[in-house]
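hey so u asked for the seq, here:
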Amino acid sequence: MQVNRVSVRQGLQWIGEGLRLVRRSLGPLSMLTLAYLFALMLLTLIPVIGPAAPLILVQVLSMGLMEAVRMADRGESPPLSTLFAGFRRYGTTIRNRLIGLGLINAAATLVALAAAASVDDGSLIRIATGSMDPSELQSLDSTLLWASLIFAALYMPAQMALWFAPMFAAWHGLGIAQSLFYSFFTVWRNRGAFTAFMLGWFAMAFIASLVLQAIKWLAPNTPVLLSIVLTPLSLILMTALYASYWPSYRDSVGTSEA
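ran it, structure tokens below
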């Protein structure tokens, strides 16, 4: 395994690669993304541990999604069952490592949210868990912004360490600590490309919001038309976002995957 240094421009090219993969395999990848999001939503219904369950199992499910995108890049059509590859394809040891990474993700998220709660009285936690009434959002002040910045600053190192960790664990057989270390090192070494990648996706989301605002302005009082555009647009962009994770791995890590 070799960590490559890629150009800043490569971060934007990953977005284009994600869109290309979606165009090539729109049906299978969009269905897998929908199933992935639905599975995470169902996990929140588990009694007692519901809010934490998606944070724990997201690493296992994301491996299935990455396996599907890798297949699509090879010109194959991934079946829906690929989503659960992390549970059964790599063996018990790898599955347990992926769950261990999920536990670390959950712990890092909760610690960052707890720190953010010190300035916003828990508003960000209530938004994250869906327990805040939408009407309350109007009354939130600048403390929510500070809480969000605190959360981002504390969670960002964990996100860097977890970005490639599932792939390192599943495809390279690395332990949890090694996977976290190499993932953090790979992202840090290519921080320029990943910054461009993040900003590029923010720009994509902003453009999509402008399109929706234009529809609302041109055709006011047409919620059906808005939903007809919003639903597929959101799904396509979300699918392209997940699909673009694969080229970020493929270009940053020089290896022959398992």
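The chain has a mean pLDDT of 87. The beta strands are 2-3, 253-254.
lmk if thats what u needed
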